[in-house]
């Protein structure tokens, strides 16, 4: 079986690493199993791409389509044009896509139109929010996927509701968490740990990159000032996403507690998360990682496609207003963290399950 694996953006790299590792292990007993790795070039900043390949021991991609940025339509179209050529030159039995970025959807459509089977890892999750480009990517990808691999029973139910064939839906767990477990003993403090005098459980981590929070400059600044004030005298480490940085430009913000740093590599970032007091974020993946690590997470969104991080895990949805965040955070300071657990099958073995199931198809 020849599998073409697609990755385009930071969260994709974290998800394909354990899948490739599972394939490499399986190949020792199934030599007919092979893969080709395609990087679409959607994320090309060193901090969002190369660092993850090095740290997570992901092999150098067989090809980089180098699509880079553009509008939603430009980027999707550029990926499709380049990926069609790639598939015609290098035929395969199966295209495997992960997550919900433009590369996921664009490559799924391209493969399906060439009559190649599509596998979607992290299928079936839904926020119900059609203003998120990711939600459209999820729905379109799942509508043409042949084999679905899910992180929760809720995702299975969503797929059934959309008409997918139950025999092709497999609840296997979470590949993001495979990566977390595979690297926990390799995480390490970033250089600024000492410069900033950070101490375990005494600082917070902030990440913001969703259009709803960062695209309007004045409300982003107001949000940051509010969080800065709310922190009391706790330091807040803010690895700033290039999208957010571009909005803020060179503006001086006069923040007392928030320390802006470059986007972190995986091993430094997970060290910061594992040792912090709490996280404020609008990321989906981070709410899964904090759930497994038992770190309180406040998500600045009105909805989540990962409800189990809230019903079972440590995540609390706080909406996008600073007033609401302050209210919920104050309550947390008084009442302490909520009781939380780890969702079923988030045990570090999802990738092995995926490869075993694919080999039976
Ligand atoms: N991440 C990282 N360094 C950072 C910020 C994030 O390594 O500075 C990792 C982290 O593991 C997170 C993942 O990148 O789960 C995806 O983050 P992002 O917020 O970009 O994507 P989302 O999960 O919202 O799709």
Span between termini: 10 Å
Helix percent band:
40-55%
Name the overall outline. Answer: globular
What is the CATH top level name of the largest domain? Alpha Beta
Low-confidence stretches: none
Classification by helices and strands: alpha/beta
- Strand order in space, largest sheet: 3-2-1-4-5-6-7
CA-based gyration radius = 20 Å
User: What proportion of the residues form beta strands (DSSP E)?
Assistant: 15-25%
InterPro entries: UDP_GlcNAc_Epimerase_2_dom, WecB-like
GO molecular function: UDP-N-acetylglucosamine 2-epimerase activity
EC number: 5.1.3.14
Protein name: UDP-N-acetylglucosamine 2-epimerase (Non-hydrolyzing)
What does this structure look like?
Keywords: Isomerase. Its EC number is 5.1.3.14. This is UDP-N-acetylglucosamine 2-epimerase (Non-hydrolyzing). One of its GO terms (molecular function) is UDP-N-acetylglucosamine 2-epimerase activity. It is an enzyme of class 5 (isomerase). With 361 residues, this protein is of the alpha/beta class. It has two domains: 2-184 and 346-358, Rossmann fold; 192-263 and 277-335, Glycogen Phosphorylase B (Rossmann fold). 44% of the residues lie in helices and 15% in strands. It is built from 16 helices and 13 strands. The protein has helices at residues 10-27, 50-55, 72-89, 102-113, 133-143, 153-161, 175-183, 192-195, 211-214, 217-230, 242-248, 266-274, 285-293, 308-311, 322-335, 350-359; strands at 2-7, 34-39, 63-64, 94-98, 117-121, 147-150, 169-171, 203-207, 235-239, 258-261, 278-281, 297-299, 315-317. It has a seven-stranded parallel β-sheet with strand order 3-2-1-4-5-6-7, with helices on both faces. It has a six-stranded parallel β-sheet with strand order 10-9-8-11-12-13. β6, α6 and β7 form a beta-alpha-beta unit. α1 packs across α7 and α1 packs across α16 (350-359). The chain is globular. The chain starts with a strand and ends with a helix. The chain binds uridine-5'-diphosphate. Uridine-5'-diphosphate (UDP) binds next to α1, α12 and α13.
């Amino acid at each position: 079986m020849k599998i073409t694996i697609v990755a385009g953006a930071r969260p994709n790299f974290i998800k394909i690493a354990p899948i490739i590792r599972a394939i490499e292990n399986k190949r020792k007993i199934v030599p007919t199993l092979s893969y080709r790795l395609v990087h679409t070039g959607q994320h090309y900043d060193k901090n969002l791409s190369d660092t993850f390949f090095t740290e997570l021991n992901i092999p150098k991609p067989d090809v980089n389509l180098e699509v880079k940025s553009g509008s939603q339509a430009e980027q999707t179209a550029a990926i499709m044009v380049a990926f069609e050529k790639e598939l015609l030159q290098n035929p395969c039995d199966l295209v495997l896509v992960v997550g919900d970025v433009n590369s996921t959807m664009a490559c799924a459509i391209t493969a399906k139109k060439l009559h190649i089977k599509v596998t979607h890892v992290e299928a079936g999750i839904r926020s119900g929010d059609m203003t998120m480009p990711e939600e459209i990517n999820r729905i379109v990808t799942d509508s043409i996927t042949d084999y679905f691999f899910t992180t929760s029973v809720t995702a299975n139910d969503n797929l059934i509701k959309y008409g997918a064939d139950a025999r092709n839906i497999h609840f296997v767990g979470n590949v993001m968490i495979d990566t977390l477990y595979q690297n926990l003993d390799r995480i390490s403090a970033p250089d600024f740990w000492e410069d900033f005098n950070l101490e375990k459980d005494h600082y917070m981590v902030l990440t913001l990159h969703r259009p709803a929070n960062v695209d309007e400059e004045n409300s982003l600044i107001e949000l940051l000032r509010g969080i800065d004030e709310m922190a009391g005298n706790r330091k807040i480490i803010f690895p700033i996403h290039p999208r957010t940085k571009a909005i803020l430009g060179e503006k001086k913000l006069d923040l007392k507690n928030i320390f802006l740093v470059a986007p972190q590599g995986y091993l430094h970032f997970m060290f910061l998360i594992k040792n912090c007091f709490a996280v404020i974020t609008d990321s989906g993946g981070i709410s899964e990682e904090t759930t497994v690590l038992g770190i309180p997470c406040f998500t600045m969104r009105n909805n989540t496609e990962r409800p189990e991080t809230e019903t079972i895990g440590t995540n609390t949805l706080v909406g996008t207003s600073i007033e609401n965040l302050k209210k919920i955070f104050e309550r947390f300071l008084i009442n302490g963290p909520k009781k939380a657990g780890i969702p079923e099958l988030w045990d570090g073995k999802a990738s092995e399950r995926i490869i075993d199931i694919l080999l039976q198809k």
